[in-house]
Design brief:
The chain has 202 residues and is of the alpha+beta class. 52% of the residues lie in helices and 17% in strands. The radius of gyration is 20 Å and the shape is globular. The chain starts with a helix and ends in an 8-residue tail after the last strand.
Length: 202
């Protein structure tokens, strides 16, 4: 199938990947847009993994206020260079991640941050519920694992479905940007406040 410039343009708009990468993805997938998207996502994961050990200490702190001042988010997003950190594409990424946090209230950046006692508590709850539902003991570990994965998908920012495209996770969305920006990108920290809520520290 002939790959048109319009097809390349559409794929670029969806992914932010370079022209040559989009051309190659479409050629590899014989013009199938969905397969081309998957190809770029997989490439993004590989490229992001290569860049993951590079130091990212530049970047931006993004502030976002939502719902007429009812929800506020602050996020620190790091890049390797000040040049990328000041770019519009990088600032847009920081803004998108702040929107994600405002909308979905994650508790952790990555699953490595979840305290062991929280996982233990979730495991106990899932086990008790499965037993109460009369599930056989043989399949309890599988049910508990499924419940824990669902819990992580809800509370871990990088595992959450991206709010503008739920076919990808936030990590995959960041990986696409790593490919487009050509640098490692790290979510360093975030905080989310909602009017009238009290934090655990208060």
């Amino acid at each position: 199938m002939a790959i048109t410039t319009e097809m390349v343009k559409q794929l670029r708009e969806k992914t932010g990947a370079g022209v040559l990468d989009c051309q190659k993805a479409l050629e590899t997938s014989n013009g199938d847009m969905e397969k081309a998207l998957d190809f770029l996502r997989e490439k993004g994961l590989a490229t992001a993994a290569k860049r993951a050990d590079r130091t990212a200490s530049e970047g931006v702190i993004e502030l976002y206020s939502h719902g007429n001042g009812r929800v506020g988010v602050m996020i620190e997003l790091n890049s390797e260079t000040d040049f990328v950190g000041r770019s519009e594409a990088f600032r847009n990424l920081a803004h998108e991640l702040a929107l994600q946090i405002a909308a979905t209230s994650p508790l952790y950046i990555s699953e490595q941050e979840i305290p062991a006692e929280v996982l233990e508590r979730e495991t106990k709850v899932a086990t008790a519920k499965a037993k109460e539902d009369g599930k056989p003991d043989a399949i309890l570990p599988k049910i508990v694992e499924g419940s824990l994965n669902k819990f992580k998908d809800e509370v871990v920012l990088l595992r959450q479905p991206y709010i503008r495209d739920e076919s990808m996770t936030v990590q995959q969305f960041i990986n696409q940007n790593i490919v487009a920006l050509g640098e490692n990108v790290v979510v360093r920290r975030f905080v989310r406040w909602a009017l009238g809520e009290t934090s655990a520290a208060e």
